[in-house]
Amino acid sequence: MRTSRTVLVIGANGGIGREACLAFKRHGWQVRALVRSLPADRDGIEWIKGDAMQRADVLAAAQDADVIVHAVNPAGYRNWGGLVLPMLDNTIAAAKAVGARIVLPGTIYNFGPDAFPLLHEDSPQHPATVKGEIRAEMERRLAEASRIGVRALVLRCGDFIGPHAGNNWFGQGLVQAGKQVKVLRYPADYTHQHAWAYLPDVAETITLLLEREPELADFAAYNFGGYWLDGYTMADAVRRVTNSPNIALRRFPWWLTALFAPFMETLRELRKMRYLWKETIQLDDAKLIAFLGKRPYTPIDKALLITLKGLGCMSAP
């Protein structure tokens, strides 16, 4: 007889996947992780070597799972069109077979200008990019699956910050992982406000929602508001936590991405997301806060301190 619930995290070597594993362990879950390369440190997690593109691998790893966290993404933005939807279809098939709820860490890419500036859970999804169309299709497939018994939870977030670099603007654009912060390069006008989500908070929020799983709709969607900061506020926070008042605030060199984009897929994808730094896009999190009864956000200074140390931009104590 099982005494605790089991979660399968697909993509556990990524930023959100790794934090999800840690959060579920803290809450007493049995944690299983499906990855293509096994880590040296097991951390009390059951690591399974497999490929999210192979349906048999996903189904085998999902046996007896109560929840499947679908946190897998193609590395470096490569071949989104060919990989993202087949991987999700494999997760849906596995969840249907074992009766698990799927959790998808969502984004704002699936929304277009007609939904801006304040996104609600039921805002129309008319994305402006191919990547956004794929994200919208992911949610559509989960909603469709929920009508045939596959429960799903989507937590939509802004840009990630957290102690692992990953594919996020903060660790790859505003600062340089592994280097002391001397300049913060902001991709917009300094007065432009942007939505940020601290990865450990995202993972913790997912576990808090699942603790009340019977209260969740078969297809449940929530917005994770996180931090709503302009360039000046972000720069001031980084200066405080690094005790470096002379850190300069500069513009992100978009011209440089144009120069090298033909040779680097990551830069090509970053350029496609530039509209996120031109439009005002905020996530309305009233529904999430009402459900949880609190704001599940770590103070920004603490979040940035842990993030910068994790990225190697500050010395660990």
Automatic annotation (TrEMBL):
Give the signal peptide as a residue range, or say none if absent.
none
Gene Ontology molecular functions: aldehyde dehydrogenase (NAD+) activity
Q: Domain of life of the organism in this record?
A: Bacteria
Q: Which Pfam families does the protein's record reference?
A: Epimerase
Q: Which InterPro entries match?
A: Epimerase_deHydtase, NAD(P)-bd_dom_sf, NAD(P)-dependent_oxidoreduct
Give the CC-aspect GO terms.
Answer: cytoplasm
Q: Which residues form the NAD-dependent epimerase/dehydratase domain?
A: 7-223
Output this protein's name: NAD-dependent epimerase/dehydratase family protein
Q: Which organism is it from?
A: Dyella choica
